[in-house]
Amino acid sequence: MWAVARRGLKRLWVPVILRVWPLARAWYRIWGLTLDGRPDDEVWYFAYGANMHDSSFRERRKMAPLEWRAGRIAGYRLRFNLEGRPKGRAAPANICADEDGEVWGVLYRLTRRELVRLCASEGIPGWRYRPIWLVAQDIAGSRVDAVAFLAEGQAADGNPSLRYITLLRNGARAHGLPAHWIAYLEGVAHAQ
Predict the structure, then answer these.
(1) What does 76-100 look like in DSSP terms, one character per residue?
(2) Predicted pLDDT of residue 140
(3) Which helix (H) or strand (E) holds 3?
(4) Which of 143, 123, 121 lies closest to 134, judged by CA?
(5) Helix-helix angle 112-121:2-19, to 10 degrees
(6) At 173, which helix (H) or strand (E)?
(7) pTM for the predicted model, two decimal places
(8) Hey, what CATH class is 38-186 in?
(9) How far, in Å, CA of 36 to CA of 109, rounded?
(10) Low-confidence ranges of the chain (pLDDT < 70)
(11) Is 78:61 a contact under the CB 8 Å cutoff?
């Protein structure tokens, strides 16, 4: 009962917090996160999961990026070690540190206010994902500071649902990610 009431309250106060920047800063501080800059500052977000697909990013999350580019981060690898829904039959994407790894995705340029709204749609701040700042490279080799989301995952990877991995594959194709990354995604087994 308390969880339902808390979700209802969250639906009411989160939109207010997102419009009033000092409240957003305070909300982040409560969770031990910092919210730097001004609302209109531009930042880069690195999407490696379903947010690579327009149906997730633009339609469902209502994001309108100022620009996008294919890009990668070095020193990480893609994992499917989060608990999805239905439980035990879907594992969303996550990243974890791996000095020999790399992850390809989409770099989106957003305002900081839009990033905070995206964070809220992903449950940040909260218990699952947390934002990390890292250096990414776009497909032309230019370096950009970008934020990505990661979570404490389970020790063992699971399998994404067919619907979910299809979003990743189609998003990677639509945004011109390299053929070797698309082949990697094609090789990811989905849950039965």
Answers:
(1) EEEE--S--SSTTS----EEEEEEE
(2) 95
(3) helix 2-19
(4) 143
(5) 170
(6) helix 162-174
(7) 0.90
(8) alpha beta
(9) 16
(10) 1-14, 18, 86, 88
(11) no
Residue with tokens 């730097």: 36
Nearest to 69 by CA among 15, 108, 29: 108
The two three-digit tokens of residue 176, written as one number: 């011109």
- Residue type for 18, please? L
Which of 65, 40, 39 is CA-nearest to residue 51? 65
Domain boundaries of the chain, sorted by first residue: 1-35, 38-186
**Cα(122)–Cα(108) distance, rounded to whole angstroms?**
16
Helix or strand run (H / E) with residue 11 = helix 2-19
Residue 59 region, left (φ>0) first, then alpha (ψ -120 to 50), else beta?
alpha
Nearest alpha carbon to residue 185 among 171, 160, 168, 161 = 168
Q: Name the one residue in this structure whose structure tokens are 């990414």.
A: 136
For residues 95 and 121, what is the distance between their CA atoms, to the nearest angstrom? 19
